[in-house]
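Record NmrA-like domain-containing protein, 312 aa.
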Amino acid sequence: MAHVKNVAIVGATGTVGTYIVDELLKAGKHQVTAITRQDSTAAIPEGVKVAKVDYDNHDSLIAALRGHDVLIITMSVQAPKESQLKLVDAAADAGVRWILPNEWGLDQTNEALADGAFMGAPEPRRPSWIGVVCGFWYDFSLGGSPLRYGFDFANRSVTLFDEGTQPINTTTFPQVGRAVARLLALPTEEKDKSGEKKGSLAHFRNGFVYISSFCASQKDMLESALRVTGTKIEDWQVGLEGSADRYARGLKMMQEGNMAGFVQAMYTRTFFPNDDGAYERRHGLHNGLLGLPVEDMDEFTKLAIGRKDEKD
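=>
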């Protein structure tokens, strides 16, 4: 049966949007439209249409979205919350059938994790929706600030939460791009002999697709870093901190007005020793259904090390 054809994306030139657009273009199965603000000067890839909108004008959004089967929303976490709500309302009025909302990341069906990591519940929406659970981005989270996965490559140090043995699911940007392109290449409706709508968008309607690059602990990541840098554990400063204590310290920082505590608490909560961050153990993964490749962790650890001067 037919797959969706016309795909609109918000954030086409953003960090994850770039990879999604690239994979959609490679697949050659869709017409892609970038939804941008009227004053945007971003360079849109060749082969992508552009629709400029006024977020304060509902009719402008409807006009841009009319005729599209899918709306993908990728926006900064700092974007106003009402921006997504405006897009969703306009998509419904424009007849868009599917939305991939701006809720990439942790497993929102795990209420304890969602509350502890400040995600909240998914927003209700009128068109059918599919959420992408991919955990934190691997190279971004491993590199840069030690507030994330505990690594400080500039100073060759790492803080292990508890003993550093709790695995979590984490995904690279390219894997997310592939997953979205392959998801949208599925037929919209397809039933097997049991009557279940497996292998189709209908199977995921108003639910989540679970993908991952690695299910890895901090110690696994450290072993990768040792291989990539050609160092030994003796060359590193390795500290230990209880995850509960580190999380509480992050909350205290937030209460004192230091928003670095938000990053620390959010990431640390994922590493609690209860498998909350290892969502494949609860739900399995859809990597196989989507034909996603097995990736080389060391390749992306090397990219992470290149982010060592980033700050949260």
